[in-house]
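Phage holin family protein: structure tokens wanted.
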Amino acid sequence: MADPNAGRPLGGNGSPGSIQGLLGDALRETTDLARKEIALFRTEMSNNLRSLFLGLGMMVGAAVFAVVALLVLTDALVKWLATVVQSEALAALIVGAVFLVIAIGLALWGRSAMSLSTLTPTRTTRQVRQDARVLSERVSG
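Answer:
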């Protein structure tokens, strides 16, 4: 079997668990942990920004549907006032109402996707707290 302590620096008394060896291990592990945390942060922020841009696209879509709804509803109102009780105005009113409902739905969906809480790097924060707890247990234990 291979020696599990092979490659570790030997202390003054020749033991593999010397202060220098432990400090070197701690420094390497801390550096590796910091790299992993930064990579996690970048990945999470990339996903959050993607969600933000999707929400922005939904808001633009909502604005387009809102403009169409206003035009159709205005046309419906004019036709309704012109003909008073004809079915053409009622049809235009229904179409305008449908576009307005679509615009409201897209706006609400876009607003929820763009909220600040979706941009918070929650996984990174949770991982950093867990790593700090593990490190403090290692130091004290």
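Confidence is low (pLDDT under 50) at residues 9-14. Residues 26-129 form one domain.

Cheers.
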